[in-house]
Amino acid sequence: PRKFSIVCIPGDGIGVDITEAAVQVLGTLSDTFGTFTFQFTTLDWSSKNYRQRGYYAPEGGIEGLKKYDAIYFGAVGWPDVPDHISLWQMILPIRTTLNQYANVRPTRILPGTVSPLSACAADPSALDWVIVRENSEGEYSGHGGTTPSSAHAAHTVATEVSIFTRVGIARIVRFAFETALRRPRRTLTMVTKSNAQRHGMVLWDTVFYEVAREYDGRVAYDKMLVDAMTVRMVTRPQSLDTIVATNLHADILSDLAAALSGSIGIAPSSNLDPSRTYPSMFEPIHGSAPDIAGQGIANPIGAFWSAAEMVRWLAGARDGEGLGVESMVDAADCLMQAIANVTEQGVKTRDLGGKSGTKEVTDAVCAEIGKVYKVDK
Amino acid sequence: PRKFSIVCIPGDGIGVDITEAAVQVLGTLSDTFGTFTFQFTTLDWSSKNYRQRGYYAPEGGIEGLKKYDAIYFGAVGWPDVPDHISLWQMILPIRTTLNQYANVRPTRILPGTVSPLSACAADPSALDWVIVRENSEGEYSGHGGTTPSSAHAAHTVATEVSIFTRVGIARIVRFAFETALRRPRRTLTMVTKSNAQRHGMVLWDTVFYEVAREYDGRVAYDKMLVDAMTVRMVTRPQSLDTIVATNLHADILSDLAAALSGSIGIAPSSNLDPSRTYPSMFEPIHGSAPDIAGQGIANPIGAFWSAAEMVRWLAGARDGEGLGVESMVDAADCLMQAIANVTEQGVKTRDLGGKSGTKEVTDAVCAEIGKVYKVDK
Ligand SMILES: CC(C)[C@H](C(=O)O)[C@@H](O)C(=O)O
Ligand SMILES: CC(C)[C@H](C(=O)O)[C@@H](O)C(=O)O
């Protein structure tokens, strides 16, 4: 069997619960198929350790991730460490150091789950999107500052500098067009706020239309302002398919998308280095949820879906691509089918209106993997 | 009767249709009450004129607005002028030149209209929010640039610089607390993205908590990240009341709020100079809608609601405040009741699922003003 080394960073709170669940499911998947295996390494980079040792990743730690085939990430953030510290010490530098410039966030309504939108509750197929998020620059460049430095000065001024590069915009736009090409509807919606933000956002529009020319006649595309985009998402969900947006805009829109699909607890994300030079990272989009951490009630579905995306990526294929190691693509499909069967049966956590705990959902998915595998044979 | 001079800037597209409708309704209102009158001046600052003359406002035009009691604004934007030009030549400089630092955006579900959220369709009272938007700085500061200047340089870099000042944050936060104090639930939710944006957003959090101390025990408050806020808006609308956010975040959230309330066509906004040094500006939040402009089908409800807010402001009072010229507060209430009666009767434009045109809705609201006035007497 083909062997993959996976580094797990469970992080904080329910990140720990759901990573454990994902490892169990991935183990069942590889045992069932028998054509690939995972060797897991777990790193204890957490807020707890930060408080004890003063760092999340040790010196050279993020560079050290380069030797693995993929990274599986839980969640980071805990009330006693300011969020801008935990994030800038861990998740954000991993994304940029490993050149994971494409963050892919599919959203659809799983069987047995209910959208808060009446239209989608009536017709779940009305919501089927992939949000492609620029993951390396823009509003997350970290630049800016505060002056005067005393927090009590009456006239303090602080800036946030968003940095957009032609190279950075072109590569994510091209990635989004390629994603759209592989989807049945071949439609791409680009989002900016170039009416109010007249420098970086205008460059984004310009580069988008330049790249778009390469896809004329192959992908239908249009442009939305980010504010109007939220309106379209709730009023005409069926009009959208693939979406590309800046780091911040896509952060906001993908949380909204997840909520509209029924729960933020089911939503996956893939932080990809499309060049495959460095390992990509897979994480559910939800946070560490301190209020329910360690109680065994976290929804593991977002973690499983992320795991399925990891398996597909390791096979050299992404959604609908079908290249590479056939049986790993089958395995990813099998896991997605097992998830859908379990939600359809009503084995669901509370956020989805069910009564099951993390372990019950995990065991149910593992059992379904075996059944789906046999049926497909 | 007390006399107010109102300058109307209908702008582009349906801005023209709905400003005309608002002027008719305001005229009916003052005729009915008889204790105040409006003298309207209309300025033709539009994209059409920009194309002919090269400017929206003539030299000194925006300064000239200072002599009016209030500004009524339609919409700006037309496909043949890049949006970042039309907005930066007109709406954005008006907001900042006239110190209109507080943009107030109430949202609720009018009788006879339907929210796309099933929960709110079942219980319309679940959604009753006021979004207070910082309207003078932040992401709309306009700073930043692009280099090298050639649009075809492979390595172009562009920036958007958001500028936040302690003074600017403190005044909008205080305004938001005062707004929350006047609402029955006395609850304020503050929104930032201080986990990813570690300079200006962290200053925002800091200043918020400083100001909040003044309201301890009088207003309940909490903090949300902007991405998670969209989730809360669609999953727990009843948990929110007054909301304060940055220029960009509130722009996005208020469009989402309007859509969740049934249609962007009903949503009002007030651009206020709370010091009353300069005139404030009232405008529906929708845009110029080139696709339906001039067809007589635009929804005038957002324009009427904005007009009601203007009347209330001119009376020296805002929602729930009850100061100032009593009969003008009554007039604002009367207009809101007339609007509600008309939507309840089903006299609605297409965006609300009705069949009526702008004129029919306008005439119906004018007729209702008379009826509501008589009943209240
Ligand atoms: C944790 C945080 C930095 C992160 C982000 O804003 O990117 C999260 O919201 C996400 O969407 O992955
Ligand atoms: C027209 C545009 C500049 C404006 C904004 O972004 O402020 C609009 O979306 C609004 O909400 O008033």
TrEMBL record, chains A, B:
Annotated ranges, domain Isopropylmalate dehydrogenase-like: 5-365
A Gene Ontology molecular function term of the record: NAD binding
InterPro entries (alphabetical): ICDH/IPMDH, IsoCit/isopropylmalate_DH_CS, IsoPropMal-DH-like_dom
Cofactor dependence: Mn(2+); Mg(2+)
Keyword Metal-binding set for record: yes
Keywords: Magnesium, Manganese, Metal-binding, NAD, Oxidoreductase
Database matches in PANTHER family: D-MALATE DEHYDROGENASE [DECARBOXYLATING]
Listed name of the protein: Isopropylmalate dehydrogenase-like domain-containing protein
Organism: Mycena belliarum
